[in-house]
Design brief:
The chain has helices at residues 86-95, 109-113, 115-121, 135-144, 162-170, 176-179, 202-217, 230-247, 254-267, 311-327, 332-335, 400-415, 418-422; strands at residues 2-6, 16-22, 29-30, 35-40, 45-49, 54-59, 66-68, 72-78, 220-228, 273-276, 279-282, 288-290, 292-294, 297-299, 302-303, 340-344, 363-367, 371-377, 380-394. With 424 residues, the protein is an alpha+beta fold.
Length: 424
């Protein structure tokens, strides 16, 4: 009997993925835990492995197909028996799904999905009490736009659960299809022979949607300042060799900025808060996201409880997250739950920019290129290594005064790093 390989649970609020690449084909012999395919979610790429050893009977979905959590990806005939006969069956399956021999494995998932629309349709008159539901449920409803009247609540007092919302979503798989239509070309392009058309990856679509969501939702504003990097650069140059010998990590600038931002966030808690419905959520923990550029796009892995970490721990943590990002090994847990983000465009040569918020966070700090500039110091003109800083913030929750004070506090800590050691 063929074993179904299904889409695994992908993490909090992730209900679907795209089959990015098949690593096997029908008729291949596979071993336990052998990677079968790559699934691309909104945030990361994950591999699906074989749960049994045997022969691939068929591939139930093609590359580029959007699949739901729990959906069937392929079938494996356990054991080595029949391995020679399977390629013929497998070859027929992709070519013509309606033929009698091929559909034998696929009817199994159909009954499991078919009842869902019925269940979602019958409770429509009842509706659900979304306002009294949990934060995760409310957030999922807001993100997906599911109507309360379409949800059959299973919680107490008519409260909906995440499972109730996901049940509705699974009953309307066709909703995602029209979303791609606006991207289709309106007509023939005059120089199409000299163009290359590549389908956007799921990660790139998610980046685009989230950035546009931030612009459409938040009252976004940016304030600027500049910081003299002399003290930090002198300290770093003097101690970097001893630091690396003792801790096994390079002493960079990012650890100073992480610590400076945490000091400022503690003094101005609204910068570390977010808006959820009609509530302001103040976070008494400091999970700092650090933007990392990868060939697939910009990702923001999160350094957990950064206020509890030493300078060495911060540098090691950032180094590990950066390596995982470049290798495509980040997990959903690495990318979710940040309270504040730091983006360093200076590594690419950016002199000044206005970073865009990373929802649902309310602020983001932009670092930039260090450049020698003439500055007035003690009544004299001297060359100083200067960096422009920018903090973009949601004006709905953060007042201009708080944003400016936040950036001034960061500036003070960087220009006098001993403050970070003494907590002043």
């Amino acid at each position: 009997m063929a074993v179904e390989i299904k889409v695994p649970a992908l993490g909090e609020s992730v209900t679907e993925a795209t089959v990015a690449k098949w690593l096997v084909k029908a008729g291949d012999a596979v071993t336990i835990d052998q990677p079968l395919c790559e699934l691309e979610t909104d945030k990361v790429t994950v591999e699906v492995n074989a749960s049994v050893a045997g022969t691939i009977v068929d591939l139930a979905v093609a590359e580029g197909t959007t699949v739901q959590v729990g959906g069937v990806l392929c079938h494996i005939e356990a054991g080595a028996a029949g391995a020679a006969a399977k390629p013929a069956v497998a070859a027929a399956a992709p070519a013509a799904a309606p033929k009698p021999p091929a559909p034998a494995p696929s009817p199994a998932p159909v009954p499991a999905v078919a009842p869902t629309p019925v269940a979602a349709a019958t409770p429509a008159p009842a509706g659900a009490n979304i306002a009294a539901s949990g934060p995760a449920t409310r957030k999922l409803v807001e993100e997906t736009g599911v109507a309360a009247s379409a949800i059959q609540p299973t919680g107490k007092d008519g409260r909906a659960t995440k499972a109730d919302v996901l049940a509705v979503l699974s009953s309307i798989p066709s909703v995602s299809a029209p979303a791609a239509k606006p991207a289709a070309p309106a007509g023939p392009r005059s120089r199409a022979d000299r163009e290359e058309r590549v389908r956007m990856t799921r990660l790139r679509r998610t980046i685009a949607n989230r950035l546009k969501e931030a612009q459409n939702t938040a009252a976004m504003l940016t304030t600027f300042n500049e910081v003299d990097m002399t003290a930090v650069m002198t300290l770093r140059e003097r101690l970097k060799e001893d630091f690396e010998k003792k801790h096994g990590a390079r002493l960079g600038f990012m650890s100073f900025f992480v610590k400076a931002c945490i000091a400022a966030l503690k003094e101005l808690p609204s910068v570390n808060a977010e808006i959820e419905g009609d509530d302001l959520v103040y976070k008494n923990y400091y999970d700092i996201g650090v933007a990392v550029g990868t060939p697939q796009g910009l990702v923001v892995p999160v350094l957990r409880d950064a206020d509890m970490l030493s300078f060495a721990d911060v540098e090691k943590g950032i180094g590990e997250l950066g390596k995982k990002a470049r290798d495509g090994k980040l997990t959903i847990a690495d990318l979710t739950g940040g309270t504040f983000t730091i983006s360093n465009g200076g590594v690419y040569g950016s002199l000044m920019s206005t970073p865009i918020l990373n929802p649902p966070q309310s602020a983001i700090l932009g670092m930039h290129k260090i450049q020698q500039r003439p500055m007035a110091v003690g009544g004299e003109i001297k060359l100083r290594p200067m960096m422009y800083l920018a903090v973009s913030y949601d004006h709905r929750i953060i007042d201009g005064r708080e944003a400016v004070l936040f950036l001034v506090r960061v500036k003070e800590c960087i220009e006098d790093p001993e403050r970070l050691l003494l907590g002043v």
